[in-house]
Design brief:
This protein has four helices and seven strands; from the N terminus they run αβββαββαββα. With 192 residues, it is α/β, with parallel strands linked by helices. It has a single domain, classed as Double Stranded RNA Binding Domain (2-Layer Sandwich), CATH 3.30.160. Strands 1, 2, 3, 4, 5, 6 and 7 form a seven-stranded mixed sheet that branches. The longest helix is centred in the last third of the chain and has 18 residues. The radius of gyration is 21 Å and the shape is elongated.
Length: 192
């Protein structure tokens, strides 16, 4: 009976581990959203979204929900009211926008192992640097400009962090801020 109780307690503790994530607020606040409407013609745009996951600078597979990320970016581009139409299907457009997102997770494997072996009593920390690099090209494929924005999310994992779960920063909010900041910079640089 004691072994069954110990196994049950171990499983319960492993399922009750907590994690809290928060943004480091490296992006400047958005001045105006949506940006001021252009005086003339709104361009049509083809948007290509690609994503890459790195762990301590080494490329790894997975780690990114590509369709959800693409939908989120398209939604923000539409809310900017700067485009006549947006598409992710390869077709003729006034602007060709290539959005490359890199998630570079940095962690100490020894610290993470120690946390796991201690059943999450000893905390560990890791960071995710999210970088959005966007290139804008005209109808002829000439580079109009490039905008690069970054934000870092810090996460702590520890058994008692279960109570902090409702206060976690969502990665979707960070991608929304990156998209808006990129479009704001593109407007300031007269790329769109």
């Amino acid at each position: 009976m004691k072994q069954l109780f110990a196994a049950f307690l171990t499983c319960a503790l492993l399922n009750l581990t907590g994690c809290i994530s928060y943004s480091n607020h490296e992006l400047a606040p958005i001045d105006q959203w949506p940006p001021a409407a252009p005086a003339g013609h709104k361009p049509s745009a083809f948007v290509k979204v690609s994503a890459q996951y790195l762990h301590n600078g080494v490329a790894k597979s997975g780690g990114v929900n590509q369709p959800a990320l693409e939908a989120l970016i398209i939604k923000e581009y539409q809310s900017s009211q700067r485009f006549a139409s947006l598409t992710t299907a390869k077709q003729a457009a006034d602007l060709y926008i290539n959005v490359k997102i890199t998630n570079n997770e940095r962690s100490n494997l020894f610290s993470a192992s120690l946390t796991g072996f201690s059943l999450f009593i000893i905390p560990t920390r890791f960071t995710n640097q999210l970088t959005m690099e966007t290139t804008f090209k005209d109808v002829n494929g000439n580079l109009l400009g490039r905008v690069k924005k970054s934000e870092t999310i810090t996460s702590w994992m520890q058994l008692l962090m279960i109570f902090a779960l409702p206060f976690n920063e969502s990665a979707d909010n960070i991608f929304t801020q990156l998209s808006k900041s990129t479009l704001e910079q593109a407007v300031q640089d007269n790329l769109i």
